[in-house]
């Protein structure tokens, strides 16, 4: 099969790529192309296009740059995105050819240390064929706020349901320690904050607590969340009396479920404070549960469990490709070193 690869002109090839995506991957939205490739001021996006000898577009594969701190050293990483193959060409060959060319293109920059991605299950074998390794599964945790909805399929009697759900809610709050939590008058709570310089200060102070973490300054967060047309995000923050940010939670609503996309905190005390204040706020809004998808340290997992989160099944994985002679490989290959959330996943 004679296939040709070239680098896309992101503006000139705009319509061709979007039409191809609509035909072969209906879930990708037009607005996402604009957001990721044309208005991405921080990620230096690129896209490779795969053509037949007759000029038919049959595949795309993109990347954008993320800056990570690894043991306080800032490195450039590339996130692989938008691997889409024409339905008629979905054998291993075209996808492997695209991936190998993408790796060669990234390596030729001589600046990128690692490429990583969050592929669909159908692409797992392709990535492994070209040298990617699985770093870890994501961890999905859920916090039940109101148990009535969870219990209703099993209890038909409304009076009994109300009694049991009330007792369950009380028990969950008791176990997590929420019953004993008292809000401090020294905290400033903002339920829908704006991204500004305070987030830069928090990023600088909080990043030292993580071995590997993607950059979360105000510029990145604004592009990722405020400029995204994919969802409406909200930002919950806690600050001290002087206005310094202690922690934030970025989230969105999915009916009666609250989904945390990102969370950053100054220290373990700030994590506990922001979680308990967030629980209180979401209960007041009559939300049923909170979910959070992440990769993090065992210490973080234990803190979330202590706060009342429990694990749910999750199949999402992160794959990575480490370029040769990388002195940071011992850190990168240890999944316990990473902190990844929805902020690090392409939409």
Give the gist of this structure.
The protein has 347 residues and is α+β, with helices and mostly antiparallel strands.
Would you count the extended β strands for me?
Answer: 16
Derived from helix and strand composition plus strand pairing, the structural class reads: alpha+beta
Q: Superfamily at the CATH H level of the largest domain?
A: Gcn5-related N-acetyltransferase (GNAT)
Let me know the average pLDDT.
91
Q: What's the architecture of the largest domain in CATH terms?
A: 3-Layer(aba) Sandwich
The count of helical stretches stands at 11
Distance between the ends: 32 Å
Tell me, briefly, the overall form: globular
The proportion of residues forming helix, as a percent range, comes to: 25-40%
Report the sheet with the most strands, covering strand number, pairing sense and barrel closure.
Answer: 9 strands, mixed
How large a portion of the residues is in β-strands, by DSSP E?
A: 25-35%
Unreliable stretches (pLDDT < 50, length at least 5) are: none
Q: Specify Rg, calculated over alpha carbons.
A: 22 Å
Instruction: Please give the oligomerization state of what you see.
Output: single chain
């Amino acid at each position: 099969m004679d296939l040709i690869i070239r680098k896309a002109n992101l503006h000139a090839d705009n319509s061709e790529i979007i039409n191809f995506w609509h035909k072969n991957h209906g879930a990708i939205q037009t607005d996402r192309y604009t957001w990721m490739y044309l208005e991405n001021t921080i990620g230096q996006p690129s896209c490779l296009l795969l053509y037949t000898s007759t000029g038919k577009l049959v595949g795309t594969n993109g990347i954008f740059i993320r800056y990570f701190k690894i043991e306080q050293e800032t490195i450039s990483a590339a996130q692989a995105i938008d691997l889409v193959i024409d339905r008629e060409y979905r054998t291993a060959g075209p996808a492997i050819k695209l991936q190998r060319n993408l790796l060669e293109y990234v390596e030729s920059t001589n600046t990128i240390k690692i490429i990583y991605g969050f592929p669909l299950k159908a692409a797992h074998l392709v990535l492994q064929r070209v040298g990617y390794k699985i770093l870890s599964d994501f961890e999905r945790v859920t916090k039940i706020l109101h148990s009535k909805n969870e219990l209703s399929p099993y209890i038909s009697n409304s009076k009994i349901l109300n009694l049991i759900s009330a007792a369950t809610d009380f028990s969950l709050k008791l176990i997590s320690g929420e019953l004993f939590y008292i809000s401090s008058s020294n905290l400033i709570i903002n339920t829908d904050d704006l991204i500004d310089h305070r987030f830069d200060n928090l990023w600088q102070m909080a990043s030292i607590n993580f071995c590997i973490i993607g950059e979360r300054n105000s510029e990145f967060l604004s592009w990722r969340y405020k400029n995204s047309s994919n969802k409406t995000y909200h930002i919950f923050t806690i600050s001290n009396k002087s206005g310094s940010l202690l922690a934030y939670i970025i989230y969105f609503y999915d009916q009666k479920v609250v989904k945390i996309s990102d969370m950053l905190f100054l220290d373990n005390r700030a994590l506990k404070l922001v979680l308990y204040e967030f629980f209180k706020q979401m209960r007041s809004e009559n939300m049923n549960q909170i979910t959070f998808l992440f990769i993090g340290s065992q210490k973080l997992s234990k803190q979330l469990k202590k706060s009342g989160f429990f694990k749910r099944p999750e199949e999402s994985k992160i794959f990575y490709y480490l370029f040769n002679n990388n002195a940071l490989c011992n850190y990168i290959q240890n999944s316990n070193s990473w902190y990844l959330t929805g902020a690090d996943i392409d939409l």
